[in-house]
Please model this.
Amino acid sequence: MTQDSDTLASGVGEYADTGAAPKTSNTSDDPWEGARNLIDGWQGGINIAHEALDRHVAQGHGDQIAIRWLGKDGSKQDLSYSDLSELASRFAHVLTAHGLSKGDSVFALMGRVPELYATALGTLKAGLIFTPLFSAFGPEPIRTRMEIGDAKVLVTTASIYKRKIAKWRSEIPTLQLVLIVGEGAPDDCVALGPSMAAANPTFETVKTAPEDPALIHFTSGTTGKPKGAVHVHNAVIYHAFSGSYALRLTPGTIYWCTADPGWVTGTTYGIISPLVNRVTMIVDEAEFDLDRWYSIIEKERVEVWYSAPTAIRMMMRAGNEAAANYDFSSLDFLASVGEPLNPEAVIWSQEVFGQPFHDNWWQTETGGIMIANRPGAEVRPGSMGKPLPGIEAAIVSETEDGFAELGDGEIGELALRPGWPSMMRAYLNEAARYQKCFKDGWYLSGDLAMRDTEGYFWFVGRADDLIKTSGHLIGPFEVESVLIEHEAVAEAGVIGVPDETAGERVKAYVTLNPGFDPDDALEQSIRGHARKKLGPAVAPRQIVFRNTLPKTRSGKIMRRLLKARELGLPEGDISTLETDET
Amino acid sequence: MTEKDYGAIFLEELIRVAPDIEAADVSPEDHIQDDLELDSMDVLNLVTALHERLGIDIPEKDYPEISTPARAAAYLERAV
Model:
């Protein structure tokens, strides 16, 4: 292993006293022993790529379609399990030919194109660590994440490279290789197309131990930089189990996960879990488009559909008439994740699709679905459902004697007993922040929730200042940091305000430096600056000007107070307030 | 108003929603999502802005009609 992966391994080793890793395998008290039978294992260890592709090929399913890819331009491409296994092998060879090895970090930054799937699986096959980034991120979030993750390789497109990377590429010291999708590449980059074509189509999957890092998914923090949640190859046990149990994925199922692999849902349930369960995945390159989506379900005979509240609410806005001319009879199971799905949307989906959307809950950290309205069980509209078998969830609150479980109907923090296979093993190089997630044998989710008398869990809100917009978690600090880089901005406070489609939208309160006047042109200039740096998904949709912001004695902006006022809620404890908002 | 006027209004509202875009860099055939990188929330905000400015409702099924400035200008002229 290289020095960097040693560093990573030492960061990962700190989970010992948190209970994040499962108990040693092959012991009779291992609750995951049954789930372990869903996978093969590889050379005494576990490798996700083997479970997702090669074992299916070896078992005679190589001709089954793994991915039906639908291009923006109306083109269609089928990739069988053999095809995808071959592409992954070629990609693995491209990595090793450039001297990269086990434990090195590969970042992917592109839309939903076939190369993305080859990159993910080839990286895992070669024993390297796969980190997806959302292609609509602006240069700032991309750079921060590549620095934290010690990126060795970046796979992207020529257009993204030119617009977002080229300027600062030389300032990332770890970065050795930039692969560009297609036949050509700018200077200092390597074209992926010709490299893949020249590579050997077979590759002996690298032997990886169950606890070897496989994936890093970034998630936002309230303060400080984003955190890289580390997941290991062992997670595939839970990916297999939860896909089957919570989403009803079975061999041959026609399955469409609309999430982008730049986020954890799009990797766990948009690449790994479905392939491990040997489904046929629909991958649509295009963004949400109502008629396109309805046509895909009808034409491709989609059976299981996993989407998100923002998209579902957009469909709802279009009304029943827009759906009237489509045949949705193929649909068998519908699920939703990202933020709570409102009861109206659950009921509406039953009317229009003949099936209700089943809401479920999990996080980047948990690596897989924890609580769900499961297939076959009664759907409670507005609830996140019940914990999956093997998952112990509770509502807890801090008392003098540590964290205590609360009773039914009480609101507290949603907590889980660590130990399931896909739990994160570390925040990359952030041992203290990682340890903070665990208290008295619980993993604390940061979400406020309550459990009803029948065991269904209900989301109430975030316990911290993180913003949930269109299913994405956004850290206010990352947004504020970019806002104050604008020459006119002195201070910024960023909160989420309710939005009927996106759940929440990002709103910024700013004060100005002397010499600047608050007007429309300045509002647009600041918002434009933020969008350039952060991308549209993260940048504020609205900026308002203030003379001063509410601050504590230590000078910390009280986002909580901005939000309470925005929502017309009680202001709570304001004893630390020093300067008020004007 | 002419199609050209509607094109100008569309461009104005587009930039108000996405002020990272420079008017001079937009060509009539640019796709607002694929080329100009608006996300779906931006598109909704643009539809709302056009509604407020011109008083027209653009149903979801017509969103492809405003996917480029050129298509949008023609569509708005027909629709208003």
The interface with chain A takes residues 15-16, 18-21, 33-34, 37-42, 44-45, 59-61, 63-64 of chain B (CB under 8 Å).
